[in-house]
Amino acid sequence: MPSTIKVLHQQAQQALNQGLYQQAHQHLMLILQQDKYFADAYFLLAMIASAHDNVAKAIVLIEQANALAPNNPEYLSQLAKHYALDNNPIEALHFAEFTAKLIAQLPPQSSLTLDTLGVAYSHIGLHEKAVVFLKKAVLINNKNPSYFFNLATSLKFIGDFEGAKKAYQKTITIAPNYYKAHAGLTGLGGLSKDCNHIPLLEQLFIQTQQAEDRLYIGHALAREYEVLGDFDKAFHYLDSAKKFKSKEFSYSIDEDKALFKSLISQFKGSEYSPSQGFSTDEAIFVVGMPRSGTTLVERIISHHSEVSSAGELQNFGLLVKKMSKSSSKRIIDRDTVRAAQHINFAELGQAYINSTRAVTCKTAKFVDKMPLNFLYVGFILQALPNAKIICLDRNPLDTIVSNFRQLFAVNQSNYNYAYDLQTTTEYYLLFKELAKLWLALFPDNFYLINYEKLVNDPLNEAKQLIEFCGLGWQEQCLNIHQNSAPVATASALQVRSPIHNNSVGNWKKYDAYLEGVKKILATDLAAKVDD
């Protein structure tokens, strides 16, 4: 290797590690001017593309690097990870499995490659496999906080809460300002008046000037103050952190009103022929407002011997976006709904089923528990006319408060409504109107289940639920705490316990802040009575 290329390569790596992407890019382009077959230049360019959220470009560049230097575990693990990020779990699993076999034959192993491979498996939804490689990564390198954080996350999903707690604590020991780890740790519970992290969290809350970091700490403080019964302080930290973060983006509930209006306009009064879709009855969708009991229902159904859980898949919505050829920024909006009218729905249905194969096919049926799929019900039943869709209906105040209290995926525009109690209330009302339409249009495929009835009379409600899914009743369905499948949702802790009604009426703890919410709900109810 010419000395100039060697120096440029080192400089590019250093610049990339420091986040100096433009400088790194310049060094890499100079390398390729001298040697267009220099594989690592393409790989490092891929890492720059990835840092700028250009996953598709990153994949092309990693594949180029892999073509020039085949069987490089670092390249292959990154390829697996990026295919997972690109919502292509089949390719992601292919490269993950290939990498796993390869590194087993090539000791000593790289901690970075092992961590990347673990993250790839985690994104696919195969958290048990992820843990195997993430544990190996921290054994080799116990100084990297991100490795421990990734391990903690997957351990939480598989139900190893004690292991997750230790991994989060290790993350914080190495990097005290790893804000996401603080939020993850408080989310595991085990807090009390004599055992909490409030002084440290309050210090961090004041210290950080980054909205995203403050959001993590604000939610962590809210959880800890809730345990102490101090709901005024809990609300203070929630509200102030959310307001601080919401200043970073421009959101109006009118955007979502336009989306819901377009859905109702397109589907109301329309008739659809089952013959236009893909014929399979294996898909069961559990939908509804987030934090309304969707995970509980998914655990009941997926504990049936003929059903497995596919987790919360974004596949259907992303396929609608891709096949509609909509160029708008949001995954679903008014423009995408209009453009989706021209989709070949049989192709959409088959593409969706194929896209799940990395985590399905083990049983006759599977559950896709993406709550916001309630937006796609009309499209789902055009594409998969034999699918069953269960929609949760929970007390409005509990639903609204739970959404406001939840730390959703940061910078995910679908949840922008949840930064304010008023917009959360208005969004809830939009959801209720749309759910009413789906029930009227698709009574044989769309089932509305009430959360309060389910937790207060689980046997009868669960039997009806299982019957609607076309399955025979099995007593084990009620024993959700014995369901060992991973849970990659905010309810990971709660659903490891038997069914209970402890969450009913939780809104009362924040009653002092709900006057505006109640007024909006009362106005809506009065308007419906007048109609």
Automatic annotation (TrEMBL):
<dbReference type="InterPro" id="IPR019734">
    <property type="entry name" value="TPR_rpt"/>
</dbReference>
<dbReference type="Pfam" id="PF13181">
    <property type="entry name" value="TPR_8"/>
</dbReference>
<dbReference type="InterPro" id="IPR027417">
    <property type="entry name" value="P-loop_NTPase"/>
</dbReference>
<dbReference type="InterPro" id="IPR026634">
    <property type="entry name" value="TPST-like"/>
</dbReference>
<dbReference type="Pfam" id="PF13469">
    <property type="entry name" value="Sulfotransfer_3"/>
</dbReference>
<dbReference type="InterPro" id="IPR011990">
    <property type="entry name" value="TPR-like_helical_dom_sf"/>
</dbReference>
<keyword id="KW-0802">TPR repeat</keyword>
<protein>
    <submittedName>
        <fullName>Sulfotransferase family protein</fullName>
    </submittedName>
</protein>
<feature type="repeat" description="TPR">
    <location>
        <begin position="145"/>
        <end position="178"/>
    </location>
</feature>
<dbReference type="GO" id="GO:0008476">
    <property type="term" value="F:protein-tyrosine sulfotransferase activity"/>
</dbReference>
<keyword id="KW-0808">Transferase</keyword>
